[in-house]
């Protein structure tokens, strides 16, 4: 029972702990998450600003160096010398050496630049430190084709053959610019400025979001500039990056979910010079890893406290609620009428030491007195019930007897000897049957035989105008019922069917279904008024019984049957009445199965 004292104590401790720890954990978790989220956002954007400034500085130096080479008189004289068909090989070589020295000097002035190389369309390249090489293989390089065909000025991290041959086997990020013309596809000379990729990557790797969140440097196409292959492991970020790039905001924070429903945070900042994009991506699970660990610790601690609460509540209930629980169980058996079991469950007698002992001793005395009173009242009730039943039974015989005697008188006056004899024989058999008032139960077959005698009298009385039939279904041979249930219902059905019409149709149905016996009488009479139907359905059986015993009228057929069924079957009896004015009435009695040679006391009549 949930409302027992023991369960309430346990529930109190559980609710107290769950509410306190749950509220504290929820507030702590949400507040901490809000603080961490705010800190991460502001810290990430601040670090992105710092790194953005660093990138802008590096790019600015690259553009400055490119501009210096592009606008130099040395570069213009070198290009003119190599483009002049009249120039000798010696003049060209001297011009190449001069240009290489100029590139060496320029490169040394910019520490951020790893190398500068100029590629000529006819298949020559010239770099610092007197590198003058005739090799047209660079035209097949991806970076060169993308520059000529698509005007891609920046090349993401890659290995450069010039750097490898110069004992510099590291990746570089390159700036490509044409010399002497602004259109890449028409350029005769292409300048390639290499910046060591690690120079840009190392400060970026020092910026973290959470435990493992990473910031990526993306180009205009949304691809990583540096060697950050883990970017491909975040496919859900790609679509969001495209929306961010199309938007007007220069920086911001976006919250999104992956295909599994996990939450992620995306922090971004646009770089003005190259329209590159810094993107930071971290999952909330990773960002709040320590917070989740703290929450799990609180849950474990709360679980241990709940177990302790259960143990404490049980210990308290053992000394307080156990005697009360046994007392309550005994009360339930008293409520059911099982006094013997109630006395066994009542705690044993002992010296009264507290209120529980006093309540137990008082209850034990009350049970003994109650058993005596109930036994006395039950015996008196049986006697009173038997007298009431006999009184109801005596009301039936005169009711149909007077009608039958009037019929016999009418037949005798009409000199209808054969019908008179039939009525007298049927009445004699009915009277012989009805005089057995000492029997409460009779075989169902005898009740049906009694009904058929009565039907034969009605057939003679009303002739062809009466259509009276009986139908049987189920195993009815060994069943017993209270006597005289059908005859009063049939008499009423016939009576009210002839009030406003010349033909009456009455159907009697007797059927067994599982552990219930159903007796039904349906007619085509005038029906019942709604007020009477409501009164029959709503009126208490005890009130009907008292009214019948005091009634001075003959309007007792249906009420008599209902009252006797209630007296014998109690709460196991039920009935249903379906009636409409001028449409007829159907009355169905539902009785518990009572088989022959079975003890009547086995039926719990309520």
Automatic annotation (TrEMBL):
<feature type="transmembrane region" description="Helical">
    <location>
        <begin position="12"/>
        <end position="29"/>
    </location>
</feature>
<keyword id="KW-0067">ATP-binding</keyword>
<protein>
    <recommendedName>
        <fullName>histidine kinase</fullName>
        <ecNumber>2.7.13.3</ecNumber>
    </recommendedName>
</protein>
<keyword id="KW-0472">Membrane</keyword>
<keyword id="KW-0812">Transmembrane</keyword>
<feature type="domain" description="HAMP">
    <location>
        <begin position="318"/>
        <end position="375"/>
    </location>
</feature>
<dbReference type="InterPro" id="IPR003660">
    <property type="entry name" value="HAMP_dom"/>
</dbReference>
<dbReference type="InterPro" id="IPR050640">
    <property type="entry name" value="Bact_2-comp_sensor_kinase"/>
</dbReference>
<keyword id="KW-0547">Nucleotide-binding</keyword>
<dbReference type="Pfam" id="PF02518">
    <property type="entry name" value="HATPase_c"/>
</dbReference>
<dbReference type="Pfam" id="PF06580">
    <property type="entry name" value="His_kinase"/>
</dbReference>
<dbReference type="InterPro" id="IPR005467">
    <property type="entry name" value="His_kinase_dom"/>
</dbReference>
<keyword id="KW-1133">Transmembrane helix</keyword>
<dbReference type="InterPro" id="IPR003594">
    <property type="entry name" value="HATPase_dom"/>
</dbReference>
<feature type="transmembrane region" description="Helical">
    <location>
        <begin position="298"/>
        <end position="316"/>
    </location>
</feature>
<keyword id="KW-0418">Kinase</keyword>
<dbReference type="InterPro" id="IPR010559">
    <property type="entry name" value="Sig_transdc_His_kin_internal"/>
</dbReference>
<keyword id="KW-0808">Transferase</keyword>
<keyword id="KW-0902">Two-component regulatory system</keyword>
<keyword id="KW-1003">Cell membrane</keyword>
<dbReference type="InterPro" id="IPR036890">
    <property type="entry name" value="HATPase_C_sf"/>
</dbReference>
<feature type="domain" description="Histidine kinase">
    <location>
        <begin position="485"/>
        <end position="595"/>
    </location>
</feature>
<keyword id="KW-0597">Phosphoprotein</keyword>
């Amino acid at each position: 029972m949930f409302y027992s004292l023991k369960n309430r104590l346990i529930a109190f401790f559980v609710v107290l702990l769950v509410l306190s720890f749950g509220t504290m954990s929820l507030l702590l978790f949400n507040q901490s998450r809000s603080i961490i989220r705010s800190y991460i956002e502001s810290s990430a954007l601040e670090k992105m600003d710092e790194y953005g400034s660093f990138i802008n500085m590096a790019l600015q130096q690259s553009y400055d160096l490119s501009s210096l080479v592009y606008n130099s008189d040395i570069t213009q004289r070198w290009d003119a010398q190599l483009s002049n068909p009249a120039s000798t090989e010696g003049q060209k070589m001297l011009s190449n050496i001069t240009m290489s020295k100029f590139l060496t000097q320029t490169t040394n002035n910019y520490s951020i630049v790893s190398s500068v190389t100029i590629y000529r369309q006819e298949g020559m390249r010239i770099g610092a430190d007197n590198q003058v090489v005739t090799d047209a293989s660079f035209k097949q390089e991806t970076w060169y084709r993308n520059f000529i065909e698509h005007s891609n000025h920046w090349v993401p991290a890659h290995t450069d053959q010039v750097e490898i041959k110069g004992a510099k086997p590291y990746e570089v990020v390159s700036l490509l610019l044409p010399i002497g013309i602004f259109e890449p596809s028409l350029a005769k000379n292409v300048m390639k400025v290499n910046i060591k990729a690690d120079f840009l990557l190392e400060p970026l790797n020092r910026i973290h979001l959470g435990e493992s969140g990473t910031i990526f440097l993306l180009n205009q196409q949304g691809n990583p500039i540096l060697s950050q292959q883990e970017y491909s492991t975040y496919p859900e970020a790609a679509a969001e990056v495209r929306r961010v790039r199309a938007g007007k905001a220069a920086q911001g924070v976006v919250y999104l979910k992956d295909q599994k429903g996990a939450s992620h945070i995306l922090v971004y900042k646009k770089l003005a010079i190259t329209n590159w994009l810094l993107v930071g991506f971290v999952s909330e699970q990773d960002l709040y890893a320590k917070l989740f660990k703290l929450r799990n610790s609180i849950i474990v601690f709360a679980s241990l406290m709940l177990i302790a609460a259960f143990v404490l509540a049980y210990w308290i209930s053992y000394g307080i609620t156990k005697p009360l629980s046994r007392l309550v169980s005994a009360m339930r058996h008293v409520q059911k009428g099982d006094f013997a079991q109630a006395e066994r469950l009542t705690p044993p007698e002992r010296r009264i030491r507290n209120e529980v002992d006093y309540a137990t001793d008082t209850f034990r005395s009350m049970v003994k007195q109650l058993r005596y009173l109930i036994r006395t009242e039950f015996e008196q009730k049986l006697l009173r019930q038997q007298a009431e039943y006999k009184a109801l039974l005596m009301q039936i015989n005169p009711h149909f007897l007077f009608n039958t005697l009037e019929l016999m008188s009418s037949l005798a006056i009409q000199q209808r000897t054969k019908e008179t004899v039939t009525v007298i024989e049927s009445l004699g058999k009915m009277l012989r049957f009805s005089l057995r008032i000492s029997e409460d139960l009779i075989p169902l077959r005898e009740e049906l035989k009694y009904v058929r005698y009565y039907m034969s009298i009605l057939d003679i009385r009303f002739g062809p105008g009466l259509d009276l039939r009986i139908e049987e279904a189920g195993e009815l041979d060994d069943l017993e019922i209270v006597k005289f249930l059908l005859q009063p219902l049939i008499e009423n059905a016939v009576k009210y069917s002839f009030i406003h019409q010349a033909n009456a149709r009455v159907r009697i149905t007797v059927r067994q279904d599982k552990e219930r016996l159903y007796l039904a009488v349906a007619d085509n009479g005038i029906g019942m008024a709604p007020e009477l139907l409501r009164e029959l359905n709503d009126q208490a059986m005890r009130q009907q019984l008292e009214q019948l015993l005091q009634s001075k009228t003959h309007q007792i057929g249906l009420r008599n049957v209902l009252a006797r069924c209630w007296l014998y079957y109690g709460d196991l009896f039920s009935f249903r009445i379906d009636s409409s004015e001028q449409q007829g009435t159907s009355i169905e009695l539902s009785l518990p199965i009572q088989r022959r040679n079975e003890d009547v006391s086995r039926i719990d009549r309520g």
